[in-house]
Amino acid sequence: MSNQIILEDISHIELGQSKPYREDKELIRFQKDLLNQYNLPFNEKALLKGLQNDFIDISSKLLDRFTLEELHRFDLILIAYDTPNIDPSYSLIGYLTEKYKLEGLCFAMSDYGLDIGFGALKVAAKMMENADFTKALLIVLEQNTLPYHESGDTHYSDGGMAITLSKNEAEKNSHIIEKNLSFQLSENFSVEDIEKALGAFKDTAVISNQELRGEVRCRLAVNGFRTSNALYEYSRLYSSDRDILQKNIWLIHYDPQLNKASAINLMAGNEKRYIYDHRNQ
């Protein structure tokens, strides 16, 4: 197949080390102003619980894995994150462009929702399909330092993903991005509803939380990321089991706030599987 969007590589990191909390009146005012737009109260105790790694820290650790020569090959670089950077003192794009001498088109995407990684993949793939971009780097960032309290006892991670896309002939050991779609679900949806929405496939493997899988054969996904959990799970599988590249896969992320599912179909081999993720609220 030619002129396909190929997912060449994916990797992720998790940061466990914390930085000192930087108390700054202007920064707190910035956080309060942002939260006012969503009718959320500022909670400094919640802010103090975080690891304090900002997006510059996380993205730098991801980009440090590439040589400068490798970075110069990307003609499209997309940085994606759901929550605003906890420290906006520096421009994330400006900092990375200057530090790594990035030569491709570089921009950020945010305020999309919990499936930000899926949305960013869709944007990058569309740009590659409709323009002369041949190689893209997608960075998905995740921070656990939040200036407000979220329901539940989930302890999120600081981390991120680096995803490499290309528009070349698909190699045997690679995945082609075949579909990237979103759809609404009924209030009392089931895994079977998702199967029906996508088409009935046999030998389905579902990554989901225990209470949702019912009688469907599945692999449970338990991780501490706020967004794009199915992509993180795929990255883990990619690094531990390269046989996954011989299988057709559905990556599915459920957003309980919007009761919406996002799905990415990665094509390879003859076997079809689902990787499905649900985050409790």
Summarize the structure.
The chain is α/β, with parallel strands linked by helices.
Question: Can you characterise this structure?
Answer:
- The protein is of the alpha/beta class.
- The protein has two domains: 6-166, Thiolase/Chalcone synthase (Peroxisomal Thiolase, Chain A, domain 1), CATH 3.40.47; 175-278, no CATH class.
- Helix content is 28%, strand content 28%.
- It is built from nine helices and eleven strands.
- It has helices at residues 25-36, 44-49, 55-63, 68-72, 92-100, 116-130, 191-198, 210-213, 229-240; strands at 6-15, 76-81, 105-109, 135-142, 158-166, 175-184, 206-208, 218-220, 247-255, 260-267, 271-278.
- The strands form two sheets. Strands 3-2-4-5-1-6-10-9-11 form a nine-stranded mixed β-sheet, with helices on both faces. A two-stranded parallel ribbon has the order 7-8.
- A hairpin with a 4-residue loop joins strand 9 (247-255) and strand 10.
- The radius of gyration is 19 Å and the shape is globular.
- Residues 202-222 have low confidence and may be disordered.
The spatial strand order of the largest sheet comes to 3-2-4-5-1-6-10-9-11
The CATH architecture of the largest domain can be named as 3-Layer(aba) Sandwich
Helix content: 25-40%
Strand content: 25-35%
Mean pLDDT: 79
Q: Which descriptor suits the 3D outline? A: globular
Q: Output the helix-strand order.
A: EHHHHEHEHEEEHEHEHEEE
Largest sheet: 9 strands, mixed
InterPro entries: Thiolase-like (IPR016039)
GO molecular function: acyltransferase activity
Protein name: 3-oxoacyl-ACP synthase
